[in-house]
Design goal:
The protein has helices at about 5-25, 40-65, 70-90, 100-120, 150-170, 175-185, 190-200, 205-220, 230-240, 245-255, 260-270, 280-295, 305-310, 325-330, and strands spanning about 30, 95, 315-320, 335-340, 350-355, 365, 385-390, 405, 410, 415-420, 420-425. The protein contains 14 helices and eleven strands. The strands form three sheets. Strands 4, 5, 7, 8, 9 and 11 form a six-stranded antiparallel beta sheet that branches. The protein has a three-stranded mixed beta sheet with strand order 6-3-10. Strands 1-2 form a two-stranded antiparallel ribbon.
Length: about 425
Amino acid sequence: MNPAIVLVVAILIITVVVLWLLVRPLLARRASDARATAAGESASVANTNVEALRVELAEARRDHQLGLLTSEGLAEAETELQSRVLAEALPEPAVSSGRYPRTAMTLGLIIPVLSIGGYLLIGSPAAAIPDVVRPTATAGGSGGSPAGQNPEQQMDELFRMAEERLKQNPGDLKGWLLLARAKSSVGRFAEALQAYEKATALAADDADVWADYADAAAGLAQGRIDGQPITLVNKALAIDARNPKALLLKGTWEIQQSQFAAAEKTFTLARSLVEPSSGFAQIADNALADLKARGASVGSASDGGVASAAAAPLATVQMQLGPEARKAATTTSAVFLIVRAAGADRGPPLAAKRLDISAIDQPVALTAADAMIGGAGLKQGVQVTLQARLSVTGQPTAQSGDWQSAKTSATLPATSTLSISERVN
């Protein structure tokens, strides 16, 4: 049976029983003794008392005959005994108590209102309704989501509510940071940058905020640190030259600029500033291991030799535009090659590379210099997914009307062909 129905029935039964126990005595007319004593027992006791009084009367008359009691005494005894016999023969009047209809009516109204209202106020009626009987979606919605909203719609609604609240309180630094980080975590980097701009205006001397701002800018640029990201990194380091995240981003930029000796020093410093078990430490360790594997240690090779070693391709990809995608491309369009860790669909990629539309027919070599964070996770033997996207407008974030390839799994180093023929909706 539906638990909700059981709950409602139980509440009604309990309420009716309690009302009956409380109201019934108030509506009934009560008698003190007459209803408390059984009729037969009362009559038996009365008869016994009357018989005893008759015996006393007979003895009094015998005493008068024997001369032991005068005529006046006999008359007085007869009068007294007759009065006592009459009193024993008559039933005692029942003392009745009145009804209390107003009190009963008041209780009958107040008790259900207070009990049901109190439960609705502090209880959880929905807890009695199992998921299988709750409505899962409205028409056009996806199953399992309240109000028929899919996860993207729910996220949009949450972001909208947060933005409305921040419009009313634009000085809420914590709110802007939470909104910016939440949008970054789901890959909405352009929107995150707007929130970070508000946050840095409120905390211009906070290196952590500038570093997070730079990280989101790097995400928007598909992992490239040059341009706005490195400008923001430098602002963070100007405030705090030992900020771990800013150092990791700077080290990544140095690798992308083939400044491998400088990158090793930067990652070594960042590694010394964080907890050994932290995520930052893992990123630094991966970057240093990647640099070492390519002969990037200071004193073991020159920067020129390191550049040659680091240029060894981890993936060679041939991209092909489908007929419809080729028609949509313009001279301002660009193609992005994106590499993610296997199973990761969101957040910053391991590596990304931007190509002009004119270079689409040439094989693309992906190296450690294309890594987003110092080569972390981008090395031989790692399982990744490769995907190419044609940005019709040249923007790094996916837009409706763009074209993309299917995701292809590979183990580095790899050679792959990606056909860009799926429309982005």
